[in-house]
Amino acid sequence: MKKELVIKLAELLKNRKLEKEIRIMEVCGTHTAEFFKTGVKDLFPEKLVLIDGPGCPVCVTPNHYLDRGIEIAKKHNTIVTTFGDMIKVPSSYSSFAKEKAEGMDVRIVYSPMDAIRIAEENPEREVVFFSVGFETTAPSEALAILAAKEKHVKNFSILSGNKLTPPAVEALLNADEVHIDGFIVPGHVSAVIGRAPWNFIAQKFRKPGVISGFEAHDLITGVIMLVDMIEKSDIALKNNYPLVVREEGNKKAVEILYSVFEQSDSEWRGIGVIPGSGLKIKDEYALYDAEKKFPVTPPPVKEHAGCRCGDLLRGLITPPQCPLFGKVCSPENAIGPCMVSGEGPCSAYYKYWRK
Ligand code: SF4
Q: In terms of CATH, what superfamily is 3-48+167-230?
């Protein structure tokens, strides 16, 4: 999009006069970071409030997942493979980074296929991929399990912390703890699952939503569309990312995903157990399911004292309202996962808002 047009759109948003306060939630962690990084958040007119939602996979993963992962690696001397964000996330008592410093074999990978390669190179060791993610990354993990089966790699498994995003939004709306007028709906997730799984926002809860991309012009036009819809009581779910998000999503990716995973109940940090919001590995692939392959009893869960990540993920507060923000808790000394992940609201506020 031409720069002049983006500047005009920015002016339109900035000069918008609102009769009353409008509160919109962005569900996706990448949106959280991009609203700040692109400066679009600075264009928000007075009375337009942005609420962060439960869209950062690392942030919504409860401590007990990491506790279990660390226990598996310790007890079964496995090679730990995971994405970079997960390494520093504090568990109840430790983190993969701390364990690595004490000798645990922890390796950052860029895809689960890297973990399979490591398993092939180390046939005498078990390799576990610690996976937290949403609909966007889960299909590649399903593919990895299918590839491991095809290649007869038996020393590779996944500890699935994968989750589905629409049930979390539905749980927030059902809980009705925070007033939300409309939603900026995740573009990447929608590219996989399509529009239909989000229809409940308008149909059941009578709130408008806009599926949005991630560039500045996507965010600006998405917010302008959403504000228009809220002011006109135009209750619908609109797709402002049509080049990427097709109505039916990516059917092939969804098919692959559900050939290996099935829906399960799952616990979300701050929200609790949400029925049908998790993805567990089907029994027929139990050989690749680290939870079944390596039974352990992790230590009792301990929450991070003073951390308000859970309240943040429910939209109840913004990061600066956490008493530890920027004082005790920073990216260098993260108390909770919302400060560790690049998609975490505390990390986004710390990097961009304080400036
Ligand atoms: Fe938790 Fe730190 Fe965020 Fe506070 S600033 S909610 S302690 S991650």
A: HypD, alpha/beta domain 1 (3.40.50.11750)
The answer to whether 3-48+167-230 and 58-164+249-293 have equal CATH topology is yes
Q: What is the pTM of this model?
A: 0.93
Q: Where are the domains of the chain?
A: 3-48+167-230, 58-164+249-293, 310-352
Fold classification of 58-164+249-293 is Rossmann fold (3.40.50)
* Furthest C-alpha separation in the chain: 67
Q: 268 alpha carbon to ligand 1 midpoint, in Å?
A: 16
C-alpha to C-alpha distances, 46 to 25, 51, 185, 312, 330, nearest whole angstrom? 16, 14, 22, 22, 28
- The bridge status of strand 272-281 relative to strand 261-268 is antiparallel
Shortest-distance atom of ligand 1 to CA 323:
4
Torsions phi, psi of 220, nearest 5? -65, -50
- Indicate the average pLDDT of the chain: 95
Nearest CA to ligand 1 atom 8: 336
Cβ atoms of 98 and 80 closer than 8 Å: no
Distances (CA, A) of 119 to 97, 111, 148: 21, 13, 10
pLDDT digits (tens, 9 = 90+) for 80-114: 999 988 999 999 999 999 999 999 999 999 999 99
